[in-house]
């Protein structure tokens, strides 16, 4: 049976997510950025929270774990590599593991770079990816930990998923990401179209996610580091893809 997904704003620019496995009725929050909007969405839908799936240790993804656990006996699953940085984890997972959420199977994918132990949750059956801050619409998270090579390798794991996968990321950064992307890839027609559509979505008061992986593969410069045209534009024709990725990431840092 399909997965129900609720999307709502949290904090200043986070996306909040609640997911419901229709077969079992279990309900999970993907990360825990802020208690009040999570509780409001639960009440609006008449759902009862049973689980929290955590992607990484940053406070804007974990601060609501403690108050939510105080309210009910929710089960919290999160990255094994960051267990020492996240209070309240009940089950630890890493890339290659999977989480059964009712009848929904989530494969755990290692996506280091934003943080060393950052993970993503992928349901192949539902063609759904919760990427948090590893992959944004038209961007990627700032590299706080790790190195360019390992971060690129994590993105390659995401690039290999079904192109029809819907991406649910951690923040509403699409317009700012589009502005930078156009500065390094100005002749990309897919990027221009995506930027225009994102502007229309924001003007209508809509979220710019989910977005198809296929569209990101065509428009997101961070996922196109292995494209010869982008490498050439950066003067890195003979460089490995991870170095091209690093150049794009540094350019974004300085933008």
TrEMBL record:
Enzyme Commission number, as recorded: 3.1.2.6
Domain Metallo-beta-lactamase: 13-171
Known cofactor(s): Zn(2+)
GO terms of molecular function: hydroxyacylglutathione hydrolase activity; metal ion binding
GO annotation terms (biological process): methylglyoxal catabolic process to D-lactate via S-lactoyl-glutathione
Family of the protein in this entry: Belongs to the metallo-beta-lactamase superfamily. Glyoxalase II family.
Protein name: Hydroxyacylglutathione hydrolase
Source organism per UniProt: Pelagibacterium luteolum
Lineage: Bacteria, Pseudomonadati, Pseudomonadota, Alphaproteobacteria, Hyphomicrobiales
Gene from which the chain derives: gloB
């Amino acid at each position: 049976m399909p997965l129900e997904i609720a999307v709502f704003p949290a904090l200043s620019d986070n996306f909040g997510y609640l997911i419901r496995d229709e077969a079992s009725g279990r309900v999970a929050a993907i990360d825990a950025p802020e208690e009040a909007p999570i509780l409001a969405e639960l009440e609006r839908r008449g759902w009862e929270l049973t689980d929290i799936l955590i992607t990484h240790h940053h406070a804007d993804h974990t601060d609501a774990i403690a108050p939510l656990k105080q309210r009910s006996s929710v089960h919290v699953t999160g990255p094994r590599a960051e267990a020492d940085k996240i209070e309240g984890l009940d089950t630890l997972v890493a890339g290659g593991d999977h989480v059964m959420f009712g009848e929904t199977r989530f494969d755990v994918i290692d996506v280091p770079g934003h943080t060393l132990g950052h993970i993503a949750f992928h349901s192949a059956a539902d063609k759904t990816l919760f990427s948090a801050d590893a992959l944004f619409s038209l961007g990627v998270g700032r590299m706080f930990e790790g190195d360019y090579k390992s971060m690129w390798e994590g993105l390659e794991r995401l690039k290999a998923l079904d192109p029809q996968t819907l991406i649910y990321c951690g923040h509403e950064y699409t317009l700012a990401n589009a502005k930078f992307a156009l500065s390094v890839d100005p002749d990309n027609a897919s990027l221009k179209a995506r930027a225009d559509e994102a502007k229309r979505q924001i003007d209508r008061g809509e979220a710019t996610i989910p977005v198809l992986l296929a569209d990101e593969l065509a428009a997101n410069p961070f996922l196109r580091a292995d494209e010869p045209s982008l490498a050439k534009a950066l003067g890195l024709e003979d460089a490995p893809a991870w170095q091209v990725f690093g150049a794009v990431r540094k350019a974004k840092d300085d933008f």
